[in-house]
Amino acid sequence: MPVLSVTQVREGDCLAADVLTPLGSLLFPEGRVLSGRDLEILRAFLIANVDVRRDGLAETKEKAEETAPEAALLPLQQKFLEMERLLERSAALTGPGQKLPVLELRNKLQELLGSIDEYNVLTFVPPPTVKPAERWIRNSVLAALTSYKLAKWCKLPEKDWLQIAFAGLLHDIGNVRIDPAIFHKPGSLTPQEVQEMRQHTVYGFRLLEGVPSLNQGVALAALQHHERLDGSGYPMKITGDKIHPYAKIVAIADMYHAMTTARNQRQAQSPYLVLEELQSQSFGKLDPLFVRTFIERATHFHNGMLVRLNDNRVGEIVFTDAQHPTRPMISVSGEIINLNKQRDLYISSIYSA
């Protein structure tokens, strides 16, 4: 069946195959006749292409892919890809005698942050590309956006916002010094390999320490973003106030995006379940004030927001209890479901923001 860009799909087209969300759950089943609202939902989920049945269609999949140029992307999506590509090129400039293009990275990061109002932590999905960047590159750009948002939400001094975004962008730069055979190993790592992977924090610190125009907190975030308040982290097992505030913020962003992104044989997790995991980690491991602020602000959706539950039912948020922001009340076909009481149910995805 023809595979069309979502920009070409019309009201009344019939799906020839299931459509899945970026998290892998069912969005629309095969055979569904698309309504105008369905088209809005496809665009909200940044679905690029769908299989459809329509009389007279003969386009091939290859032709359809050609009709989805990057020029059709939203400004935030376009700037995201530009930042991702620059970070990828910059990561290759970390050998002896080479220097990170900090000024170029800074300028591109400022361009990206110019569209920060379009960024919603829970609903933003990076656009697909023909040649995907390494997962850590993509997650670093996401961490930059989220770290900036969290710094602003937590009312840190405005002069720190850009530097914290830089910390998110470069926190995993030490990965370039890890043996590719270990970094890309598909199976389980040996204890020795795990230790080498953990050295990316030290490698990153050495690459960033003393770089002009970078706040010392950027280098410390690379070193400390896996440290935990109770001393259970690495590489130095430091505790509490010894961890730089930049590192505390980046740790939250890093964990969130790592857990909501598919990797190896593990599926991406629901953003709402990840927020609950972060909440549990705030007891002794992550900064509780930063975590609480992150959850409260990230889940601040207006009533009427359309969501999908893990049993594939679709409903609307009708009330959010400030004490349980990840477990709002949902109206499904007139039935009110209190997610705080029905713990077997949770929000698996959000249609739009």
List descriptors.
353 residues; alpha+beta; Molybdopterin biosynthesis moea protein, domain 2; three-stranded antiparallel sheet; 10 strands; 10% strand
Account of the protein in words:
There is one protein chain. The protein is an alpha+beta fold and 353 residues long. The chain folds into three domains: 3-68, Molybdopterin biosynthesis moea protein, domain 2, CATH 3.90.105; 71-298, Hypothetical protein af1432 (Orthogonal Bundle); 306-350. 41% of the residues lie in helices and 10% in strands. The protein has 13 helices and ten strands. It has helices at residues 36-44, 61-66, 75-91, 102-113, 135-153, 158-170, 180-183, 191-198, 200-208, 216-224, 245-259, 271-281, 288-298, and strands at residues 3-5, 14-15, 19-20, 26-28, 49-53, 306-309, 314-319, 329-332, 335-338, 347-350. Strands 9-8-7-6-10 form a five-stranded antiparallel β-sheet. Helix 3 (75-91) runs antiparallel to helix 4 (102-113), helix 5 runs antiparallel to helix 6 (158-170) and helix 11 runs antiparallel to helix 12 (271-281). The chain is globular and about 60 Å long.
Instruction: Give the class-level CATH name of the largest domain.
Output: Mainly Alpha
Q: How would you characterize the largest beta sheet?
A: 5 strands, antiparallel
Show unreliable segments: 58-68
Helix content: 40-55%
Q: Total helix count? A: 13
Strand order of the largest sheet: 9-8-7-6-10
Q: What's the average pLDDT?
A: 88
What is the alpha-carbon Rg in Å?
21 Å
The helix/strand class is alpha+beta
State the end-to-end distance. 32 Å
Q: Order of SSEs, N→C?
A: EEEEHEHHHHHHHHHHHHEEEEE
CATH fold-level label of the largest domain = Hypothetical protein af1432
